[in-house]
Amino acid sequence: MNNLNTTYCQPANLIPHFWYYKIVDKDGRPDLPCMILLSEIFGWFRNLSGSNTYYSTGASLPELVDGKLAISYDFLSEKLNLQKERIRRKLVKLEGIKVLSREVKNIPLKDGSRITQLYLTINQKFFQSCFRDPKLDIRVREDEATTTDLPAFENVPQLSGEHISKKSKIRSMKPNFIAKDLKDQERHDDDEDNKGGNNQSHNNNSSNSSNPLQQGKTKQKLEDFYPLAQEDCTALQIISGREFTLTAMNEILLDMSKRLTDRSFSSKKGFMNYMAKCFRYEMRDAVKISSEHFKIRSNQNQEEQIIYIQEQYLTKIENSRHVSPEWHLKKKLACVLERSKAYKFLSSYKSIKITEEGNCRILLSKHVELSEHDKAIILRQVQATHETIGQGAKTIQLITNLDIVFLPSKQAQERQTGNIPNRSQSPVPDQNLLTGIWGKIRSMLVSYYGEDGKAIDQNWFSKLEPEINDENRSITLHAPSDFIKDWVQSKYSTLIEKLCQGQNYNLIGVSC
After folding, report:
1. I want to staple 358 with a disulfide (CB 3.0 to 4.6 A). Which of 241, 262, 369, 400 is the partner?
2. pLDDT in tens, 369-397
């Protein structure tokens, strides 16, 4: 029974310790079938000799061809006693975390037929990090099976885990992903062992080093971990089981860092566990926010918020279901004019009138800067939507001229009529005259913004109509337009909500 009739034994499949943290299932537990499969693949990569061509009937698998492992699902299923579909899912998972890549080719056989063959390629950076000597031949040959003289393994320290000082009572479970980290850790441990002093003082130092707070290390907040790297994103996707993109994760983290300022972490491991739970129960749809241009409203600066409001307004016009010529004109102008000009023009649009002489008169509520080129674009769109040409002279209406009229401002009307009010009187009512819970909150808002408080109250807060429910202790604010609603929500809703809570009221929201 001790007679060895094979050239060499099967490769020794080793599992590095950090795989238990990197290759995990959706609950964060080690994915053992996946690790066994990867270990088997690594064993073939380390022990097979390469070839330049591949002609096989399937019996000689596996084989290295140009640095790729030619293998089959049938071979792996029979070797590992796993179903082929399960092996396929595990390979897809390993490909998702960028450990290996798959390729399927249709290759010829010696008998002239063709078969579909699976090829696997290993990520060399990850492969190098798993072994101290990746080129070491770990096969046990026939002449070496009965001897213990293995010079290739002499003077090689154990790599089964980190070096642990016997005097330390706390075992570090942090994995080493890169060989450089392992060397730094060993050098740090050697320095700790070589420190002078008696055993009692050394024990005290060991106990103090286990507590980062006693070492004077400050805890890190959420903002200190922003932005996340692609490796962090991949790890959080695996642990949380949610497929958020790197852009979406960073946007969510940035929003949380502004709201949750009381969160602090002693290590990155604690931060990763916390964020994994946050992403696992995140209410946003990972697919809908997968765009590279995804932005959370609270993370936008003032210019970006203005652009967002303008884009929302123009999108609303483009998606309108109205079918009149006037609405067709609005939709066309929302597409052809520059964004800011289209927003200013359409938001101040009042009416359009076509005369029998072919003149078009568009009335705007306020002045909008338009170049001659802009006016030519508007005229072409008016001709496309309002000109009619048919049989008979009465059905022909050509438009040749465009006239844009701006309504005079309130100050200009006052100068024309001579009814100029007394400017010494403040246009904002005395804050002491504001009554009720909303009046009290408005007074607090004015005080909060200081010198600009009255102007802000006049432009925004005074135009909001409150709906107060004293029984439920709730306040709902109604805005006269979508623009005012969006602006108040983006700029002031957080502050208003805090002031309402200070008065034991809840802000339901701002509606139009």
Report:
1. 400
2. 889 999 999 999 988 888 877 655 556 77
Name the architecture of domain 431-511. 2-Layer Sandwich (3.30)
User: Which residues, 6+ apart, have CB-to-CB distance to 184 below 8 Å?
Assistant: none
DSSP 3-state assignment of 282? coil
Q: Which of 282, 336, 346, 284 is nearest to 312 (CA)?
A: 346
Lookup: tokens for 495? 């502050």
Collapsed DSSP state (helix, strand, coil) of residue 213: coil
pLDDT for the residue numbered 393: 53
Element (H, E) at 7: none
Q: Is the pLDDT of residue 197 over 80?
A: no
Please report, for residues 48, 335, 346, 409, 447, the alpha-carbon distance to residue 326 in angstroms, rounded to integers and kept in the order given.
75, 15, 11, 25, 45
418: left (phi over 0), alpha (psi -120 to 50) or beta: left
pTM of the model: 0.35
H-helix or E-strand containing 402? strand 401-406
Instruction: Find the angle CA(446)-CA(448)-CA(449) to the nearest 5 degrees.
Output: 70
| DSSP label at residue 11 | P
What are the structural domain ranges in the chain?
19-144, 220-299, 302-417, 431-511
Is residue 159 scored above 60 in pLDDT?
Answer: no
d(CA 348, CA 410): 15
In whole angstroms, what is the distance from residue 242 CA to residue 282 CA? 9
CA geometry: angle at 460 spanning 295 and 363, to 5°? 90
**Among 221, 318, 322, 339, residue whose Cα is nearest residue 275:** 221
Would you say 506 and 496 are in contact if contact means Cβ atoms under 8 Å apart?
no
Q: How many CA atoms lie within 13 A of 73 on its CB side?
A: 14
CATH fold for domain 19-144: Arc Repressor Mutant, subunit A (1.10.10)
Walk across the sheet containing 349-354 and list its strands.
349-354, 359-364, 401-406
